[in-house]
Design goal:
Elements: H1 3-54, H2 64-74, E1 103-107, E2 113-116, H3 127-134, E3 139-146, E4 149-159, E5 162-169, H4 171-223, H5 237-293, H6 299-327, E6 337-340, H7 341-355, E7 361-365, E8 369-372, H8 374-391, E9 398-403, E10 406-410
Parallel strand pairs: 7-9
Antiparallel strand pairs: 1-2, 1-5, 3-4, 4-5, 6-8, 9-10
Length: 422
């Protein structure tokens, strides 16, 4: 499952939970309010009936009182369960019961109905109702189904041995609650669908920088191109991620450039080492071949050649040691000392003259003391003079001057090309 779909589902689920809880709370509060109104109406009706029953001045003789009296005489229980004395106030209910809203009936202590307002509707009498009629006070509410109708019934004690039941249909309340359930269900479905759509839109906006980051990563993995960058997308977590990714690309690009430079430096080291080794190796091989081919050579000349061979071997040894240190990635360490630079330059010139006797040298050396490593300075001066001899036209002199601490080696060749001069 994609990250965008997960965000959409999570946001839709969160909204669905909130909407369903809000709908449930709305339904419960509305149901409680509607039932509370019904209970208030029943309580008000029961209070008015009790007040009429207890007020002699509100009696209507010859109507309901006579009816209750006749029903009391017809429905009276045996002597053992006779109706208690003192029930005259109970016959003072309001006249014309059919005009009274809802249903009401009078119940005796043994559960027999003494009077009811509607002839075809009898409210159920249970043990609790009988106990309340026989007690001295109290009331309670309950729901009951009567003749296929859902009713709310209030039972209240109004006199010794008498309890009145007042009922009201819940049809309208149930109809309103049913309609409310339908409306809330439609609202829930619409809200969840809208939340899913908006969640998908928001997820697409939130995931777009991650998609760009993924595409950039895949492009780098495929092409090894580190030049691409992700534009700034804000200062949130995704924006910081993009900034970190760009910083990582910068670091990788610097590392790759450093690696390329290192590889180039290694190749240059090989080329320089080849150049450094070519001259002493060639000279050493030439001197050895001369010694092999001229066994009757003059003793002084043999001694000079052997001295050159030893010097060239020492030079090769120093060069090989420096190359080994360079290959390890460490700067060769050597102790500097006070030395005569003019003497070092003179020895290098003499050696170059022996190697190339056809090249004239114009040398002007002033006594100069410097602090340095003799072997390295000797090799540096040797490189300058060897290059001057190599690129100098035949017959032209190589000019070498040392004044103060500045050494100048000049040839009369074509010079360094413009692209190599930097």
């Amino acid at each position: 499952m994609s990250f965008r779909r997960r965000i959409t589902l999570v946001s839709a689920a969160a909204v669905a939970i909130a909407v369903v809880l809000a709908s449930l709370l709305t339904y419960l509060l509305t149901s409680h309010q509607l039932r509370g109104q019904v209970d208030s109406q029943l309580s008000s009706r029961a209070d008015s009936l009790s007040f009429v029953a207890r007020s002699p001045e509100r009696r209507s003789p010859g109507t309901l009182a006579d009816l209750i009296k006749s029903q009391d005489s017809e429905q009276a229980p045996p002597q053992s369960a006779a109706t208690p004395q003192g029930t005259a106030p109970l016959r003072n209910l309001p006249p014309r019961p059919g005009q009274v809203r809802g249903y009401q009936q009078l119940v005796g202590p043994h559960g027999h109905v003494l009077f009811r307002s509607s002839g075809n509707v009898t409210l159920p009498v249970d043990a609790r109702t009988r106990e309340l009629a026989a007690s001295t006070g109290g009331s309670f509410f309950r729901d009951a189904r009567v003749n296929g109708l859902q009713m709310r019934i209030l039972t209240e004690h109004i006199a010794p041995g008498r309890a009145i039941q007042v009922a009201q249909q819940l049809t309208e309340v149930d109809r309103l609650l049913s309609r409310l359930r339908l409306i809330l269900a439609l609202l829930d479905i619409g809200g969840i669908a809208l939340a899913a759509g908006l969640g998908r839109l928001v997820a697409g906006t939130a995931v777009r920088p991650l998609k760009r980051l993924t595409q950039a990563t895949e492009h780098i993995a495929l092409t090894q191109d580190l030049s691409g960058r992700i534009g700034l997308v804000g200062e949130d977590e995704i924006g910081r991620l993009a900034t970190s990714f760009n910083a990582m690309l910068d670091a990788l690009e610097r590392s790759m450039n450093a690696l390329d430079a290192s590889v180039h430096a290694q190749r240059q080291l090989v080329a320089d080492a080849s150049h450094e080794l070519r001259t002493p190796v060639t000279s050493l091989r030439t001197n050895i071949e001369i010694l092999q081919q001229a066994p009757d050579m003059d003793l002084e000349e043999r001694r000079r050649l052997l001295s050159d061979v030893v010097q060239q071997i020492e030079e090769l040894t120093l060069l090989m040691n420096d190359l080994i240190d360079l290959a390890r990635g460490e700067e060769p360490h050597a102790d500097a000392e006070d030395m005569r630079l003019d003497l070092v330059v003179g020895e290098v010139v003499d050696r170059a003259h022996r190697h190339t006797p056809t090249t004239p040298f114009q040398v002007e050396l002033e006594p100069t003391i410097v602090v340095g490593v003799p072997a390295r300075l000797e090799r540096a001066v040797g490189n300058l003079i060897d290059n001057a001899v190599k690129y100098n036209p035949p017959g032209e002199p190589v000019e070498i001057r040392l004044g103060g601490v500045e050494l100048t080696v000049r040839d009369h060749g074509q010079g360094i090309s413009a692209e190599d001069l930097p």
